[in-house]
Amino acid sequence: MIPVLARDRVALAAARADLASRASAPVVLVPTMGALHAGHRALLRRASELGGTGGAVIVSIFVNPLQFGPGEDLDRYPRALDDDMAVCRDEGVAVLFAPSEAEMYPDVPTVTVDPGPVGELFEGEFRPGFFCGVLTVVIKLFGLARPDVAVFGEKDAQQLALIRRMVVDLDLGVEIVGWPGRVQPEQVPLASRKKDRSFAVTRARRGEGRGGGRRGQGRQRSTDRTRRRRSR
To answer: Is 40 annotated as catalytic?
Structure first.
């Protein structure tokens, strides 16, 4: 099955309308930042199971600038759309939504989702603004893709808990399913997540995010970066 490749919200809306006319079971969204690997394949297979024979799977690929802070090199994050398209084809994905930054954020966002106090604990302590960026892009993807179900990896436990809380608190009407996302129990965290964790370690060594004027600057700097990219 060759997925429909939607690069903007108009194409996604058309593909979603087509799914609505044909699908007799849930439409399942799997949000990712691309560079799909074996763990993602496990999530896609779980999404296919949830959709059943009459459902459909939408995969989103978007490297979200709002969740990158100082020292977290947005431009170096791996991007491999052709390879990702092949993975989605192999796993029976119906639609691949791969928007540009300008498509997702036509203007610098001034309204974002506050994760609350839990967003400043654990990983959030070392990556200020990270969970705000995650929740903001997730709620945008929900609005654009209009899924019945969304699947996320359980290994990002804090992120999963915050997404579930957001869905309940804001009455979003999307069922959230967590899945291990690993082929083998002994499998170590996979490549893209290793890179993500290295960002947090680097920031912890620098002492960023620990009180003082550092807290909350990650989101502002990410927004500033988005503004600069708009002006190019």
So the answer is: yes
